[in-house]
Amino acid sequence: MTSTDIQDYIPEEEWPPVSAMLEGFGDQTLPASHALTGTALSIPAEDGVDEYTFDTESSLTWTTQRGQEKTSATAGYKAIEARPGIFIIDSVRGEGPAAENVTIIWDRNTGAVTSGVSRFVLAGDRTRSTTDFSQTNSNGSAARHERSSGLVGKRIFYRYSDVESYEHIYLNPGTFTWNCVRGGEAGLADTDRCMTWEAAEDLFIFFWTEKVMCVDAVLLVDLREQRSIGRMFGWDDPAKEPVILPFNSRLSVLNTTEYPQDTNKH
């Protein structure tokens, strides 16, 4: 008997807070890369530009310019080299409801850059998360990360730690289903909005946002190396504080669904 055999539907009002995941996921185990130290990255934004200067292996200076208004500050960051020359860079700036989680996927081989900035907004009396994406090329070329259907049809099992495991079922380029098999959210499952971009062969940038919990996630799904690397950014209502959860996992593709081509026949 598996854990799913004894689980059943859990009403939304019985779901635990976002922080229930923290202890089981543990610390991100993949090592930080120092390769970006001394480099800088500019990302065009509406009516301005965002600039990131990687001062040391763990500290950066970010500068946001919108029209004539310019803001600059320092923040910590972690860069992981997911594949040679391809980095996922994660940084948090601000505190409390004003916190923002910035995740950048930068392919220094092609120059392609995808940036996701997650923040909190009020929807009625509820705090929700939202993520703004931008894409550019650090080399000035036309190469970009393109939207992809490469995960569609796959059912993937993710092991985040010895006590946390989930499965994802990718239904179409904008919708997926997740199910907690073991861990703090055991028995919880939902179907939520997502987006996927292709970063390299069998390497995908994946984003999802949850409609029940206040959670936005940005990660790399690497089918070749059989792992994922990323973070979840959410709001814990009982504690009234952000939950920032960097993670990596080992993954297994359980199966790939291929639909019959005679769907119009009776």
UniProtKB/TrEMBL annotation:
UniProt-listed InterPro entries: Calycin, MoaF_C, MoaF_N
Domain Molybdenum cofactor biosynthesis protein F N-terminal: 13-120
MoaF C-terminal domain segment(s): 146-257
Gene3D superfamilies associated with the record: 2.40.128.20
One Pfam short name: MoaF_C
Protein name stated in the entry: Molybdenum cofactor biosynthesis protein F
Organism of origin: Pseudarthrobacter phenanthrenivorans (Arthrobacter phenanthrenivorans)
